[in-house]
Design goal:
single chain; about 70 residues; mainly alpha; 434 Repressor (Amino-terminal Domain)
């Protein structure tokens, strides 16, 4: 099992599924999944929208543990 990413943890803390977050952002669930797995990068605009929906700062999206 993969270690949860900061984006994944923020989404879960907000009580959203990938599909629900995707709907709020106007993207597919698979896009959220690829961001969480670090397969695809987010644009600056994506980061801003994610932060607004999740109520976090952009630094929290990219923070790594330890």
């Amino acid at each position: 099992m993969r270690k949860p990413t900061p984006l994944m943890l923020a989404r879960i803390r907000k009580g959203l599924t990938q599909a629900q977050l995707g709907k709020k952002l106007g993207v597919k669930q698979s896009t959220i999944s690829s961001w969480e797995k670090n397969i695809n990068s987010m644009t600056f605009g994506d980061v801003q929208r994610v932060c607004k929906v999740l109520g976090i700062t952009d630094i929290n999206v990219f923070r790594t543990e330890g």
